[in-house]
Amino acid sequence: SEIDTSNQHQVDARDLILFYLYTGARLSEGLTPVFTWANVGQGALHFPHTKMSKSRTIPMPEKVREILESRKHLPEGPFPFTTAVAYSRIKRFFRGIGIQDASPHTLRKTAGSLFYLATRDIFAASRFLGHSSVTVTEQHYQGLIQSLQVENARKFEDVLSRNLLHICYDTTKGHQSPPIDNDAVGSDLPTGKVVLDGIN
Q1: How far is CA 40 from the centre of its chain?
Q2: Between 20 and 30 A from 73 (CA), which of 37, 84, 177, 184?
Q3: 3-class SS at 155?
Q4: Kind and range of the H or E run holding 111
């Protein structure tokens, strides 16, 4: 959606939304006085005051670098707003594009979901979000984790089905063994005859 760049409230809302989507930060973690220019390092962002008093540092996404660069004229920090003001501007922006139920925390939840989908690593997602433990992350994204488990089970079944003929092939009948899918299962899979010899 196009914004009116002459409207500073819309610019602020856009920058806030992108910042929270790319960092997964909680609302207060990105606002002055918690987050200032001192928290912006060379290629990294440092969040020293999280919900569980557990600091975290993440690589700086290129989009966030661009946003921060455009807000360098603000002396205190990139987002010198109270939580009420930031919340209001984000909500107003969402309503303006027809999204009624989203909030700043929706951005954090979305960031966590997309990070996990991209990495398939619940431990990395937990560190990215600054959760107190991986158990907290698992509780928040239980539905997503379960859906990926189903997807992974189907992928495994597909790989197994494509290679089952090779694994169980009866080489004693003089048939030529079909080619194995090395990309799917690795090059160290034993031949059908070895497998059969091992179970006969």
Answers
A1: 21
A2: 84
A3: helix
A4: helix 104-119
The neighbour count for residue 29, using CB atoms within 10 Å, is 21
Kindly report, residue by residue over 122-155, the tens digit of the pLDDT: 999 999 999 888 999 999 898 888 888 898 899 8
CB 2 within 8 A of CB 14: no
Residues 6 or more apart whose CB falls under 8 angstroms from that of 21 comprise: 107, 110, 111
Q: How confident is the model at residue 46 (pLDDT cuts 50, 70, 90)?
A: very high
Reduce the secondary structure of 16-71 to three states and give it as a string. Answer: HHHHHHHHCCCHHHHCCCCCCHHHECCCEEEECCCCCCCCEEEECCHHHHHHHHHC
Long-range Cβ contact pairs of 72-76 (< 8 A, separation 24 or more): 76/32, 76/33, 76/36
Q: Nearest 5 degrees, angle CA 102-CA 111-CA 106?
A: 15
Considering all CA atoms of the chain, what is the largest pairwise distance in Å, rounded to the nearest integer?
81
Report how far Cα 61 is from the mean position of its chain's Cα atoms: 12
Confidence (pLDDT) at 148: 87
pLDDT in tens, 112-126: 999 999 999 999 999
**What whole-number distance in Å separates Cα of residue 110 and Cα of residue 144?**
12
Conformation bin of residue 12: beta by default, left when phi > 0, alpha when psi is -120 to 50: alpha
**DSSP labels, 121-139:** -HHHHHHHHT-SSHHHHHH
